[in-house]
Design a protein that fits this description.
With about 130 residues, the chain is mostly helical. Helices cover about 85% and strands about 0% of the residues. It contains four helices and no strands.
């Protein structure tokens, strides 16, 4: 249940992030993340029930679950980082006039995105795969 709540919060944050964008961009990203979330949760439930991961697990089940989560990690984060990079670049160009301020802020945003790229995959795997063997 926690996983579904987390994905709903994620979709809400995507809506807030995209609310000022063109409708084509907004609906493309929202439909993509919504369908991706539905397929991801159905796949997690299928793997958990097929390999009986909650009780008396069948061999190879945790490997299948990890592979599933790892693939969806990239399917979520690559478009997310493209979207965040676009929004941050747009923000930097809009609010800073000096070329040096734009360069400095762009480097800062790249560092923030790089840090997020290191930390967020660990959080994602921990949330959806857990501490399984």
């Amino acid at each position: 249940m926690f996983k579904i709540i987390f994905l709903i919060i994620f979709l809400g944050l995507m809506y807030v992030l995209l609310r000022n964008e063109r409708n084509s961009i907004k609906f493309t990203f929202l439909i993509y993340f919504s369908l991706l979330s539905i397929v991801f949760i159905i796949g997690l439930n299928y793997i958990s029930s097929t390999y009986q991961l909650s009780h008396d697990p069948i061999d190879g089940g945790f490997d299948k679950k990890f592979d599933w989560v790892y693939v969806f990690l990239y399917l979520y984060f690559i478009p997310l980082f493209i979207l965040l990079g676009y929004k941050l670049f747009k923000f930097t160009n809009k609010f800073f006039e000096s070329i040096w301020a734009k360069i400095t802020m762009s480097i800062l945003w790249l560092a923030v995105l790089a840090a997020m790229g290191v930390v967020l995959p660990f959080i994602f795997i921990l949330m959806f795969y857990g501490f399984a063997p």
